[in-house]
Design goal:
The protein is an alpha/beta fold and 234 residues long. It has helices at residues 42-49, 89-100, 105-115, 130-143, 160-176, 188-194, 219-233, and strands at 2-13, 16-27, 31-35, 57-62, 65-66, 74-77, 148-152, 180-184, 197-202, 207-213. This is ABC transporter ATP-binding protein.
Length: 234
């Protein structure tokens, strides 16, 4: 079942056209990563999907309904954790539902238990490592009501070991907490590890050059695809 559809999306800032003829269907429960050079329009696609921008042309469809410029249907995780230092771990995770007036205590308890955060729920962000802060940021997005999750380079600030640990933790959480996810990353390795499909942008204005299905690839096929992606993104 199609959850999100971008139909012939184009966008320009003043006279600078950034996107042209972007077409993408995202299935319910799918994890899709968008790859492309810096300045290729990845963040603009996120802003259009989340309703922060209305596309110059084209339509954003959610469950078959046009939602251009509409907000409230996405949960967002930024590059930096953006936690509120005066709120505890628990209070930061609750923030999205608190804003919407939809606090669910039973769900919070399950999230804390599943993530192993019961022992730190009353701590403040300044007592946490960078990796733990990113985990809290992800749980806040996961707990925020919204049919789509947008992850904007969520692990780019982490060291390599912490990043790998975070990726594995994310996979474990999403195995249980089924969500439809769009992610931006500059790491091909990360994209191959986490995604069901990859979207590669190219050109100025950017359009989708190719989509790759990652599911079911063996190690040799992944190595070959990584090499192909590196050449495409250079």
């Amino acid at each position: 079942m199609t959850k999100l559809e971008l139909r012939n999306i184009g966008h320009a800032f003043s006279h600078n056209q950034v996107l042209k003829n972007v077409n993408l269907e995202v299935r319910d429960g799918e994890f899709i990563t968008i790859l492309g050079p810096s300045g290729s329009g990845k963040s603009t696609i996120f802003n259009i999907t989340g309703g922060m921008l209305e596309p110059s042309v084209g339509d954003v469809m959610l469950n078959g309904e046009r939602i251009n410029g509409c907000r409230g249907h996405v949960a967002y995780m930024p590059q930096s954790h953006s936690l509120m230092p005066w709120r505890t771990v628990l209070q930061n995770i609750e923030l999205g539902r608190e804003i919407k007036g939809q606090i669910d205590q039973a769900r919070m308890e399950k999230l804390l238990e599943r993530s192993g955060f019961e022992a730190i729920q009353n701590q403040y962000p300044d007592s946490l490592s960078g990796g733990m802060k990113q985990r809290v940021s992800f749980l806040r997005a996961l707990n925020t009501p919204g049919e789509l999750m947008l992850l904007d380079e969520p692990f780019s600030a982490l060291d390599e070991i912490t990043r790998i640990d975070m990726q594995e933790w994310l996979q474990e959480i999403l195995t249980v907490e089924k969500r439809t996810v769009l992610m931006i990353t500059h790491s091909i390795e990360e994209a191959l590890k986490l995604s069901d499909r990859l979207v590669v942008l190219e050109g100025k204005p950017a359009t989708i050059r190719q989509l790759f299905d990652v599911n079911g690839l063996d190690e040799q096929e992944r190595v070959a695809l990584k090499s192909q992606l590196l050449n495409m993104l250079r």
